[in-house]
């Protein structure tokens, strides 16, 4: 898996939490994967807030800073760009990055709609640039182990799947009316934010989703207004002026998987909520087959519950601790029980992106996966409005599991 030793110039657009996380991931790649010979060089970072530009230079280690993202795309030493800006800027910046010939790693949702996401895909395809999407949960070693068990037929014929992403980040009624609740700025609500992660994981582990029938609801229809840039969606405002929430808080769907992949013909359910009380980051997937099943929960991300063979059903599940046998675990820890965390998944994601950019295997998620996720979100919205099943066309170039 080695590549020719090289330095890759990195540009960053938006120096918030996710931008900082991308920066740390780049810095960790040569430490965690020294044999790749890839050394990211933090060249220039952009943010509209001068204080964040200073932070990028003085703390994160970028050589230059700017308040104009166009300077990042025009910089001759920048080969790859991380796009961590809010949703409503993704299409503008993503298309501009492609036209500038920059490979880019962009957070999801890539666009506020299917059409925006497809426009970014078209620009990236035309420019021939490598893309990577922030579907970091794929990279958990326990998830990679589950995918291998399913692909190898250890669960038999896959019959049904359950996935959910329950988060309470918006369960406070006085939580601020940030851009995430504005349709023009965010697009859909929990569908794009959390449901898209769950559907992506289903497709990565089981196979392409072919049909969907969904419903949605908005639990808190008004929230106190927040001036753009003055806080986050975690801010709580007492006795503030109220404004309307324009997208959904909860979504649920029945799905049917297509004829490709180990989940051929399987059915399932997907749920997501941003206002639930109890789960903090309750991201779960359960896959059931004729010969066994697996269960994974991100709140215990280093564990996989496995039952193989009908004869073992009486003993129930075995809890398998992630270990050096699974995924990239050995790059971070020498033995089971030394847990990986969220940030480590981003380092794996950075590695896959840089490896693809450097001519190595393309194991990274890509803009075609983002288009597939956007198509599912759009179909869910249409179904929720009409009450009818919606068929999904196959998207070429995705990394949805297709191993028989």
From TrEMBL:
<dbReference type="InterPro" id="IPR055170">
    <property type="entry name" value="GFO_IDH_MocA-like_dom"/>
</dbReference>
<dbReference type="InterPro" id="IPR000683">
    <property type="entry name" value="Gfo/Idh/MocA-like_OxRdtase_N"/>
</dbReference>
<dbReference type="InterPro" id="IPR036291">
    <property type="entry name" value="NAD(P)-bd_dom_sf"/>
</dbReference>
<dbReference type="InterPro" id="IPR050463">
    <property type="entry name" value="Gfo/Idh/MocA_oxidrdct_glycsds"/>
</dbReference>
<protein>
    <submittedName>
        <fullName>Putative oxidoreductase</fullName>
    </submittedName>
</protein>
<dbReference type="Pfam" id="PF22725">
    <property type="entry name" value="GFO_IDH_MocA_C3"/>
</dbReference>
<feature type="domain" description="Gfo/Idh/MocA-like oxidoreductase N-terminal">
    <location>
        <begin position="9"/>
        <end position="135"/>
    </location>
</feature>
<keyword id="KW-0560">Oxidoreductase</keyword>
<dbReference type="GO" id="GO:0000166">
    <property type="term" value="F:nucleotide binding"/>
</dbReference>
<dbReference type="Pfam" id="PF01408">
    <property type="entry name" value="GFO_IDH_MocA"/>
</dbReference>
<feature type="domain" description="GFO/IDH/MocA-like oxidoreductase">
    <location>
        <begin position="144"/>
        <end position="294"/>
    </location>
</feature>
<dbReference type="GO" id="GO:0016491">
    <property type="term" value="F:oxidoreductase activity"/>
</dbReference>
